[in-house]
Structure formats: C-alpha cells, structure tokens
C-alpha cells in the first residue's frame, strides 16, 4: 500500500521549496523503502531548486541521508528491514566498462528506483540524485543502501552520503595521502574540512588550510589543520611553499571549484605532487596553465568524484572510525533542523554560516 508522507519539493525553477504530501510506493523488485532519519542540506539541493542541474521539475530534494530500511522488494538480499543504512547516489553496477576495469567510481550505470514517487495528484517527482530524502520515507534502489553500525547517530552517518564523503575521499582515495605527507586544502567549507579530517586520518604530518574567512580557518583547525592561511591577506602559494620548506605540498585539494583557486593548487604542489579537484566548476570556467609547468613538475592532476568512494567499502569503515573516536563527524553538524527549515538552511549555506545543516526526521 502506498505511503503518504511529508516531502520537501522544488516545484519550479528558482521558486522557494514547499512542504508537500508525497506518495511513496511500496518497493518493487530490487528496491528498498527507507524510513529516513536524517538528511543533510547540500549545495546540490539548492542547485536543483535553481534549475542548475536539469529542468525535470518538480524535484523531491535531499540526498545526504541515513535511515532504517522499512521494506524491501523482490530479490533484495544485501539489506533487510530494520537495517540502519546510509544512502548513496552512485550504486555501482559491477558490469560496465568502468567497473570491469577496476575503476568502479567511474561506473556510469545509474541505479535509481524504477517505481515513481508522486504528488497526491499523481505528478511524478524527480528525486534529487535519485534519492529524495527530505521526506519521512523514500524509495530507492537497494544498491543505494549501505548497512552500517546502528550505534552511529543518523545525523553523523548521513553526512557520509555526500559532502563529507566527497572531501574525505578526495584526500584518502583520490589524493592517496599517506603518513608524513604535507597536505594543503584550499576552501574550508564542509567538503574542505572533510578533506582535512581525511588527511589527519591518513597520518599527514602537515595540513595547511586556506580560506578567505578566519572563522572557517578556526573550524579547520578543529578538524586537524596544523597551519592556516587567510588568502585575503597572504598569497597562499607563497605561504604553502614557505610552510613546506620551499617545496610545496605533496597533495593539494581544491575544494571550491574556481579557476583562480585551482591555479593556486597547481602552483602550490611539490615536484611530483598531486592536485585533487573536488570543488565543482561551472561549464563556463576555464584555466590556462603553462604546459612546461605541467611537464616539468610531474605528479598528477586529478579530480575526485564523490570522493572516488565505494560505498560498501568506505561507509562502514568510516562509521567504525567515527565510533572509535578517530573521525569527528559530529563536528560537521552545525545545526539540526526540521523539514520546514530547509529553505532557511539554504540561506545559511549561501552566507557561509554553517558547515552542514541536518534535517532530523
Ligand atoms: N579562496 C579561498 N577560499 C575561498 C575562496 C577563495 N577564492 N572562495 C571561497 N572560499 C571558501 C569559502 O569561504 C568557504 O569556506 O571556500 C569555502 C567553500 O565552502 P562551502 O561554500 O561551504 O562549500 P562546500 O559545501 O564545502 O563545497 C565546496 O565542493 O562538492 C563541491 O559543490 C561543492 O563546489 C562545491 C565545493
Ligand atoms: Zn558499473
Ligand atoms: Zn550533495
């Protein structure tokens, strides 16, 4: 029997979100019905609402979530009712070219639920990133659910579903930070701070945080930054070089997605150093780099997709590290809010007042 629950919907381009009654069908083959417990507010939700992703309105927003499986459809064996799960927006198929070549983080198969959630008048909803978790319940493909230790708080665990995983993974998966490394992170929002936390977890000896905002730099210290650079006052490239004995950092993570900060990352890397772009640029952005610098400095210029994570490998491990007190996920939760407060949370996010606002359900 379909379930009528509350959901936060973006009805048309640029319009404020509204609370709607939505209809969530029971799971079909390969699907799971999830009782959502928490869902973080991410830039991508705002991007959907602004029409920046596509124009398949109305959207059911929310995608950074944890909850409890309520029911599963035919053929689902990996998760069962009662399991505490983190939702992911990139279930890998195991069969495409990327998967078969051992690079499943580039898997291009999308696994969204086949059954559609709707408004009460039957209008089909497009769930944000195939999830749609600003809702009491949501319907996903079972492969989007990863079972983790239920001792974790839903607010903390849910953050691994998007932004925090992106930043952690940029450092530990894409950047492959290892103990003793020097790491610089440019842009210290939730994603950048997660990269800092990842670098600390990986044993980096020096972690340099760069931002324009002193308050952000202070928060960055809390996640493990050993040095901070306010790039409004100080040239970050010169500062990173100076802090690394004139060399540059082994790994530089760009967590903003802008040409000028990408250039800073490029010039702040050591010989054979790695630059990881995890900030998302817009289609019009371009950079011009001296080819000789690419050639002469060597190393790697990489981008990180969803932290190059494998949910089934990374989510349970990171939750365990959190439960052992080795990874501060709670520190990312700036506030917990209700479903009614999502629009207000977008404002706080825009003004840079929060790392993450998390909806408690
Ligand atoms: N130099 C240094 N820091 C900057 C600059 C700049 N030119 N411009 C912005 N910043 C800082 C801001 O002060 C802020 O602390 O970058 C940080 C960006 O943080 P958020 O806006 O909170 O964004 P976040 O959620 O961390 O996401 C960062 O990653 O996944 C992507 O789409 C996401 O592109 C976005 C990026
Ligand atoms: Zn695949
Ligand atoms: Zn997100």
From TrEMBL:
Cofactor: Zn(2+)
Keyword Cytoplasm: no
EC number(s) per entry: 1.1.1.306
MF terms (GO), sorted A to Z: mycothiol-dependent formaldehyde dehydrogenase activity
Record Gene3D superfamilies: Medium-chain alcohol dehydrogenases, catalytic domain, NAD(P)-binding Rossmann-like Domain
Keyword Hydrolase in annotation: no
Keywords of the record: Metal-binding, NAD, Oxidoreductase, Zinc
Top-level EC class: oxidoreductase
PROSITE patterns, alphabetized: ADH_ZINC (PS00059)
Domain (Enoyl reductase (ER)) ranges: 14-359
Protein family (similarity comment): Belongs to the zinc-containing alcohol dehydrogenase family.
Protein name per the record: S-(Hydroxymethyl)mycothiol dehydrogenase
């Amino acid at each position: 029997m379909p379930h009528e629950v509350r959901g936060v919907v973006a009805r048309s381009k640029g319009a404020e979100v509204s609370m709607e009654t939505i209809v969530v069908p029971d799971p079909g083959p390969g699907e799971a019905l999830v009782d959502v417990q928490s869902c973080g507010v991410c830039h991508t939700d705002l991007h959907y609402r602004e029409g920046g992703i596509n124009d398949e309105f109305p959207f059911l927003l929310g995608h950074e979530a944890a909850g409890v499986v309520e029911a599963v459809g035919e053929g689902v064996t990996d998760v069962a009712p009662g399991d505490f799960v983190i939702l992911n927006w990139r279930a890998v198929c195991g069969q495409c070219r990327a998967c078969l070549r051992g690079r499943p983080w580039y898997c291009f198969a999308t696994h969204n639920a086949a059954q559609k959630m709707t408004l009460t008048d039957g209008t089909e909803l497009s769930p944000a990133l195939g999830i749609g978790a600003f809702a009491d319940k949501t319907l996903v493909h079972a492969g989007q659910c990863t079972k983790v230790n239920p001792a974790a708080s839903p607010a903390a665990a849910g953050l691994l579903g998007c932004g925090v995983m992106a930043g952690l993974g940029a450092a530990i998966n894409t950047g492959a930070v290892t103990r003793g490394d020097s790491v610089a992170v440019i842009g210290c929002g939730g994603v950048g701070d997660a990269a800092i936390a990842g670098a600390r977890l990986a044993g980096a000896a020096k972690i340099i945080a760069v931002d324009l905002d002193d308050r952000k730099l202070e928060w960055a210290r809390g996640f493990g930054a050993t040095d901070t650079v306010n790039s409004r006052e100080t040239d970050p490239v010169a500062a990173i070089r100076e802090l690394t004995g004139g060399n540059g950092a082994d790994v530089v993570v760009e967590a903003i997605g802008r040409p000028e900060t990408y250039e800073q990352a490029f010039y702040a890397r050591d010989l054979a150093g790695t630059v990881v772009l995890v900030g998302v640029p817009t289609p019009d952005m371009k950079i011009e780099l001296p080819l000789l610098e690419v050639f002469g400095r060597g190393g790697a210029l990489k981008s990180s997709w969803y932290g190059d994570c494998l949910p089934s490998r990374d989510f349970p491990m990171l939750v365990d590290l959190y439960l052992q007190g080795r990874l501060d996920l709670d520190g990312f939760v700036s506030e917990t809010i209700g479903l009614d407060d999502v629009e207000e949370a977008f404002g706080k996010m825009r003004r840079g007042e929060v790392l993450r606002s998390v909806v408690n359900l």
